[in-house]
């Protein structure tokens, strides 16, 4: 249902090395109503606009992303919001607005307090080359507002790809999410929503609440996920670059990797969301959990593979050749161009046209 034309066109462009697996992955995706290969806008089009804000989400929609990704948390008065970090320090002016609570979790703030924060200005300071005056004063988005953005253009109807973030801090958030999606009719269309978590317990709770909705178990190497082959910590490794440290990490053995695929299935998942090691390293680069044998094993178990978080063509090429079925990206425009599904308008044109 999502971008059917794009799916057909992209399949033909996949590298030969990926073709055998593409058949399996494409079929698994089709059965779930999920786009193949899926373009998942990580916190919106968050390279070009502040993450998880209205312009980031509307830009991803207009570019043609298949899904808008968001990290779900809950205000102290019970409203579901899209925020990634455990606290608000990195992406807002909480230190100036609420100095005594600056390190407090999102759950320590009412929605009105969260809405009073400026979650755009940090981006202008961090990325002056992509800064826009209109980003100043942007607000945190509620789940309802992200749904509104996703549904606002009848010609462009991305789904939502929702992660329960630090779910241990938000008892009952899985039920709240189920009610929120149901109330807006978002569960009526197969594949319109995908649910994801690193937390197996949260995934199982999501499955209890919404058994019919596709779910993804996120994977990495570390505490609470796949056990590494070497127990050495980053500090003990003597490595100065975290990405280089992560890139050397491997699962303890094949059985350990397979165990996590089985956990995914047991929790009701239809796929996994593994990390990637990126060519240029950087803060998004982790262990390479999308090696061809891993993707083949996942497909053989009937699981889709959606890799996070990949922004460059060199890495798009590598992970697609390895057999993944979708990509979380901050740069939806770049990935759509790579998949020969370019938008008619540039990122800057779209932002300007919407008043940013
Ligand atoms: O949800 C997939 C990916 O977003 C996981 O990483 O930390 O960006 O939520 P994170
Ligand atoms: Ca996420």
Element layout with pairings:
Layout: H1 4-13, H2 19-32, E1 38-41, H3 54-63, E2 67-74, E3 80-82, H4 94-97, H5 111-115, H6 121-126, E4 141-142, H7 143-151, E5 159-164, H8 173-183, E6 193-197, H9 200-209, E7 215-219, H10 234-237, H11 242-248, H12 254-266, E8 271-274, H13 292-300, E9 304-307, H14 313-322, E10 326-329, H15 332-338, H16 347-353
Parallel strand pairs: 1-2, 1-10, 2-5, 5-6, 6-7, 7-8, 8-9, 9-10
Antiparallel strand pairs: 2-3, 3-4
Helix pairs in contact: 2-13, 3-7
Bound molecules: SN-glycerol-3-phosphate and calcium ion.
SN-glycerol-3-phosphate (G3P) binds next to loops.
What does this structure look like?
The protein has one domain (11-74, 160-353): Alpha-Beta Barrel (TIM Barrel). Helices cover 38% and strands 13% of the residues. It is built from 16 helices and ten strands. It has an eight-stranded parallel β-barrel with strand order 1-2-5-6-7-8-9-10, surrounded by eight helices. The chain is globular. SN-glycerol-3-phosphate is lined by residues 42, 71, 84, 163, 196, 218, 273, 308-309, 328.
What would the keywords be for this entry?
binds SN-glycerol-3-phosphate, 356 residues, globular, 10 strands, alpha/beta, disordered N terminus, eight-stranded parallel β-barrel, TIM Barrel, binds calcium ion
Please state roughly what percent of the residues sit in beta strands, choosing from under 5%, 5-15%, 15-25%, 25-35%, 35-45% or over 45%: 5-15%
Global geometry:
globular
Q: Which CATH class?
A: Alpha Beta
**CATH architecture annotation:** Alpha-Beta Barrel
Number of helices: 16
Structural class: alpha/beta
- CATH fold field value: TIM Barrel
Compute the separation of the termini in Å. Answer: 30 Å
Helix proportion range: 25-40%
Largest sheet: 8 strands, parallel, barrel
The Rg value, from CA coordinates, equals 19 Å
Give the integer mean of the pLDDT values.
Answer: 94
Q: How many separate domains make up the residues?
A: 1
Low-confidence stretches: 1-21
Give the name of the CATH superfamily. Phosphatidylinositol (PI) phosphodiesterase
**What is the string of SSEs from the N terminus onward?**
HHEHEEHHHEHEHEHEHHHEHEHEHH
Number of β-strand runs: 10
Q: Within the largest sheet, what's the order of strands?
A: 1-2-5-6-7-8-9-10
């Amino acid at each position: 249902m999502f971008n059917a034309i794009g799916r057909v066109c992209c399949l033909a462009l996949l590298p030969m090395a990926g073709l055998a697996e593409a058949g399996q992955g494409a079929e698994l995706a089709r059965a779930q109503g999920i786009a193949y290969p899926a373009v998942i806008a990580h916190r919106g089009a968050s390279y070009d606009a502040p993450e998880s804000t209205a312009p980031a989400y509307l830009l991803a929609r207009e570019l043609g992303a298949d899904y808008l990704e968001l990290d779900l948390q809950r205000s102290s008065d019970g409203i579901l919001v899209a925020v990634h970090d455990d606290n608000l320090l990195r992406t807002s002016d909480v230190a100036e607005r609420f100095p005594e609570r600056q390190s407090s979790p999102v759950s320590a703030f009412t929605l009105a307090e969260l809405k009073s924060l400026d979650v755009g200005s940090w981006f202008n300071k961090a990325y002056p080359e992509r800064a826009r005056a209109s980003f100043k004063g942007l607000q945190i988005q509620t789940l309802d507002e992200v749904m509104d953005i996703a549904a606002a253009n009848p010609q462009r109807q991305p789904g939502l790809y929702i992660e329960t973030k630090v779910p241990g801090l938000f008892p009952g958030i899985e039920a709240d999410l189920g009610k929120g999606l149901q109330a807006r009719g978002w569960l009526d269309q197969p594949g319109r929503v995908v649910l994801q978590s690193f937390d197996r317990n949260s995934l199982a709770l999501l499955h209890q609440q919404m058994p019919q909705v596709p779910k993804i178990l996120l994977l990495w190497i570390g505490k609470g996920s796949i056990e590494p082959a070497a127990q050495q910590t980053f500090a003990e490794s003597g490595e100065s670059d975290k990405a280089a440290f992560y890139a050397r990490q491997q699962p303890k053995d094949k059985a350990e990797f397979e165990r996590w695929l089985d956990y995914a299935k047991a929790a009701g998942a239809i796929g996994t969301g593994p990390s990637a090691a990126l060519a240029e390293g950087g803060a998004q680069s982790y262990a390479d959990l999308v090696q061809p044998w891993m993707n083949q094993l996942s497909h053989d178990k009937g699981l889709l593979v959606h890799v996070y978080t990949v922004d460059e063509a060199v890495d798009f090429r590598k992970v697609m050749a390895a057999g993944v079925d979708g990509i979380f990206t901050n740069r939806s425009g770049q990935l759509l161009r790579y998949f020969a599904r370019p938008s008619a308008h540039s990122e800057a044109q779209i932002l300007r046209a919407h008043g940013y």
